[in-house]
């Protein structure tokens, strides 16, 4: 008989207020591939993407690929079993899994070391079972070992908001002498502020809520500007306080915010989108560049974990029980989570 585990299972896409995740005993995962691992989960971050998936916003993109599903894609656990073909990872190692659960390692993107763009990538908690559970399976090549200096609750958010922030900041051309705007402060934005500061940029945080702007200041943002309602007023404030930006990074899922970010950078400037959204009325003759960014590669992941363990990168978390996932997601929907919520089984 297959052993059981507890998991928060989604059987039907529905608004989070209707509590669609149910704590259910389901079969513990088994290892099916020769480079497979079984992890006992210690922490799993709660992501806005999980909310979109649960509420059906991503049905049009074919996600989730099937139901019932265990969501959750920023997962840290201890390796309990390894398959015969596993080479480097050992039982007892603590590792993290990012949204990129696996990739083919053979397509043109994988061969160019851009496996986050793989045509046949599997996504944790979307096309394969995720981390709102006690156990998860994984693939050796796609897990990242975690040093003892970072505990599991603080490590979990590195595996989605962390890597998303890291790659977007890199794509923005952040560096000494440059001013970078971070639009949307939360799980991803609070890390992006710190990563851009580490590279020597001047950082301007932009958010709707005072709570998130206060947090930005605490984390080292040089200025924090509220954006509510009028874009004209916002741009006036930005020009008065900082002048136009060299680049902008958007983590707020809003067409209006994307538009404001495009108008906040100088001619020829760069706008990095870390969220889905529409660009409307693009000012072509200003020669600005809009770039998309999605999670990151295995190398980005390993580099970020190393950076986090050797610097003072502050990952701000609040910890909850697995059974509280519906409540946590409902609070996230209302922008009530300061930075990142993490579930502990
Ligand atoms: Zn995420
Ligand atoms: Zn591939």
Please describe the structure with a list of short key phrases separated by commas or semicolons.
345 residues, globular, 7-stranded mixed sheet, 10 helices, Rossmann fold, alpha/beta, binds zinc ion, Quinone Oxidoreductase, Chain A, domain 1, 27% strand
Total helical elements: 10
| Secondary-structure content class | alpha/beta
- Ranges where pLDDT stays below 50 over 5 or more residues in a row are none
Average pLDDT reading? 96
Give the overall shape, derived from the CA principal axes.
globular
SSE blueprint:
Layout: E1 4-10, E2 21-27, E3 36-46, H1 48-55, E4 75-82, E5 94-97, E6 100-102, H2 108-111, E7 122-123, E8 135-139, E9 143-145, H3 152-155, H4 161-171, E10 179-183, H5 189-198, E11 202-207, H6 210-218, E12 223-226, H7 231-241, E13 245-250, H8 255-264, E14 265-273, E15 289-292, H9 298-310, E16 317-321, H10 325-333, E17 340-344
Helix pairs in contact: 4-5, 7-8
Bound molecules: zinc ion (2 copies).
Q: Can you put this structure into words, describing what you see?
A:
The mean pLDDT is 96. Strands 3, 4, 5, 8, 9, 16 and 17 form a seven-stranded mixed beta sheet that branches. A six-stranded parallel beta sheet has the order 12-11-10-13-14-15, with helices on both faces. The longest helix is centred in the last third of the chain and has 13 residues. It has two domains: 205 residues, Quinone Oxidoreductase, Chain A, domain 1, CATH 3.90.180; 131 residues, NAD(P)-binding Rossmann-like Domain (Rossmann fold). By secondary structure, it is of the alpha/beta class. α4 packs across α5. The chain is built from ten helices and 17 strands. α5 links the parallel β10 and β11. Bound molecules: zinc ion (2 copies). One zinc ion (ZN) binds next to loops.
